[in-house]
Structure formats: C-alpha cells, structure tokens
Amino acid sequence: MIDTHCHIYKEYYDDIESIIKKMDNNIIIVSGTNLKNNKEVLELCNKYDNVYGTLGIHPEDIDEINEETLNFIEDHINDNKI
C-alpha cells in the first residue's frame, strides 16, 4: 500500500515513530506545506526507509514565503526521496 499524501508532523502527533512503524512494509509520502514542515519532511525521509516526501507551499502558508523557503525547496527538490 502507498499513502500518497499525508501530513505526519510533530505538531499533530506525539508518537510519529509508531505511526510510521504501522506502515513498515508500505510507503508513506509526507507532503510539506511550509519551511518548518518541509524540513521535517526531509528529516523523516532520511530517517525511515519507507518514507518519501514532497516539498511545497500550501496556499494557507503563502504569507510565510521568503527567500529561505524557496532556497530550501530548490536545494532539496532533487534529493533522492523527494
């Protein structure tokens, strides 16, 4: 099974490890929406074999866009699991 779009962030879940472990033999694609959780997406991709990610900006977070946000996405858009 592949979960093609989820938001597994520290702000929503106390025990991310157990959530990811339940999907151990499956693939999870975590979608970033701002700089903070784009960084978290990258951390999860690097930590867990079954986690892949997308980096982006959600329309609700459009006011937070700055050069750092765009540079982060540009710097990591070609990472192996993004």
List the topology elements.
Layout: E1 2-6, H1 16-22, E2 27-31, H2 35-47, E3 51-54, H3 67-76
Parallel strand pairs: 1-2, 2-3
Give the percentage of residues in beta strands. 15-25%
> Could you give a short account of the major beta sheet?
3 strands, parallel
The SS-based structural class is alpha/beta
* N→C terminal distance: 18 Å
Q: Helical proportion?
A: 25-40%
List SSEs in N-to-C order. Answer: EHEHEH
How are the strands of the largest sheet arranged?
Answer: 1-2-3
User: Shape, please?
Assistant: globular
The total of beta strands comes to 3
Q: List unreliable stretches of 5+ residues.
A: none
* Radius of gyration based on Cα positions: 13 Å
Count of DSSP helices?
Answer: 3
- Mean model confidence by pLDDT: 96
Task: Summarize this entry quickly.
With 82 residues, the chain is an alpha/beta fold. 37% of the residues lie in helices and 17% in strands. The mean pLDDT is 96.
